[in-house]
Amino acid sequence: MLDETNAIIEQILKPKLLALGRDIQLLQVNSDGVIKISIGGGCSTCPTADSLIEKMVVSNLQENIPNIKRVEISLQNVSDELINEGLKILRKADL
User: Fold this and answer.
1) What torsion do the CA atoms of 74, 28, 30, 70 make, to the nearest 10 degrees?
2) Where do the H-state alpha helices sit in the chain?
């Protein structure tokens, strides 16, 4: 199921999300049929867009991989780059 999930994300979902200024990353596929994904690049003031994107991701995965039991999505509305910069600043302050 890992290879199937990666293929769907890379070939179908990632291009769609990149066109919307978003990104998607597979975090985990477990043997119970649970897939964990992170979606980044969103706007914290756009909950409707987040909801629609979640539905699109879940439906695409469920249509293409029949043995999925659940998809867990973590929305990252602040870029990893910004978080890392903030952590660098905080670490310097601790010195």
Assistant:
1) 30
2) 2-8, 14-19, 47-64, 80-94
Among 75, 70, 74, 62, CA closest to 4: 62
User: What is the SS3 assignment for 32?
Assistant: coil
**The residue to which tokens 């978080």 are assigned:** 83
- The whole-number mean pLDDT for each consecutive block of 10 residues of the chain, a chain of 95 residues, reads 92 91 91 92 68 91 92 78 83 75
Closest CA relative to residue 74, chosen from 30, 12, 22, 33: 22
In the block, which residue shows the tokens 């756009």?
46
Q: Which of 65, 54, 70, 73 is nearest to 3 (CA)?
A: 65
Residue with tokens 């597979």: 26
CB neighbours (10 Å) of residue 13? 22
Model pTM score: 0.72
Rounded CA-CA distance 74/84 in Å is 18
